[in-house]
Amino acid sequence: MSTINDIPVILSTLRTESDPQLSPFFYSFEDLYGRKLWHQLTKVLDDFFKTPLSKPVRTRLYNQFISQFKYNINQIKLIEFLLYATNELQDPQESLTYLEDLLEDLSKKENIDKSQALLFIQIEIARNKLRAGDDVESKEILDEIDSKLEKIDSVDLKLNQSYFSTNAEYYKTKHDYNNFYYQALLFLSTIELDELETYEQQKLAYELSVSALLADKIYNFGELLTHPILQTLQSTEHEWLIKLLNSLNSGDLNKFSELLSNLSKSTILKESEPFLRQKICLMTLVELVFSKSIRTISFKDVSIATRLSLNEVEHLVMKALSLGLLKGSIDQVEQTITINWVQPRIVNTTQIENMKERLVEWDSNVAKLGQFMEENGKEIWVD
């Protein structure tokens, strides 16, 4: 193990072997370490690790420098620095060794704020076990962590980030599109988008888009469509996914049909074309109900809107009712649907404009009724 006298030599060596633009960091490290200004040193280290040029020396800096004072700094930050360092390792088993060693050492440490730091390490252990192929133990750890997090009044943001992203990674391996979608969106709610590199943003935007399309319980894409991460697909080979999501969200069957040829660009989406066709029919039905001011709709109206035969309409409506997209009843004799409720959803500007037009029309009708009553109504006397 290095001693305090070795630190200047270690930092000097790392500085000479690093990109010259990083030199100021190493001078600051030596100065702040020598004066034991741990808080200020932590901030400079944080800036260093967030600099892409630091990647080649991150692991060595952690091993040779940070490990000398690891219990003098905020433990959540310590784990962040370790994660930056281990992210440069190719073998998840090697990363696991670092994390398990730190977990063991920190567990023995007394008189230090470590409860959430220990949970943080365990979550990252679960992530690396998942990457190493041990998905069963990974899920067991995550389930145990979940019960512990529920008992904490104020969870550190980094724990939430780690927990949601690891859960999303787990559900991705299981092709559980519903849960991946929800967990990935929760993860996004805990970060600033620029914390992810551009390629990471685009990768996550693509995965979220595919999950939204293939999830059998997700029929409202408003939250994703309004999130800036989706715009990272603009001017890329996957830009068509934004248009496809918009067509589904607005129940635009014509636009959806125009975009179908793009499915061949994705094997999994092409294989799921029958499901996607059913999904657009369901969304077209919801949009039909949403856009009409009447509560009762005929099978014929649904058939025309969805391009399904009259015999297929009842099954479609029953599917919408079972999914909770609508609430109402079916009159098989009259071949009508009476709708009492439509699932709340985030609407786009076009849908808002349509709602505005309906409100203006309603206001006009109320005004006309009021004028009619004023002109033709008779006085009412009450004894």
Automatic annotation (TrEMBL):
Matching InterPro entries: PCI_dom, PSD13_N, PSMD13, Rpn9_C, WH_DNA-bd_sf
One GO BP annotation of this record: ubiquitin-dependent protein catabolic process
GO CC field: cytosol; nucleus; proteasome regulatory particle, lid subcomplex
Residues annotated as domain PCI: 179-344
Coiled-coil segments on the chain, per record: none
Key words, A-Z: Proteasome
SMART domains per the UniProt record, alphabetical: PINT
UniProt-recorded Gene Ontology molecular function terms: structural molecule activity
The family this protein is said to belong to: Belongs to the proteasome subunit S11 family.
PANTHER family found in the cross-reference section: 26S PROTEASOME NON-ATPASE REGULATORY SUBUNIT 13 (PTHR10539)
Protein name per UniProt: PCI domain-containing protein
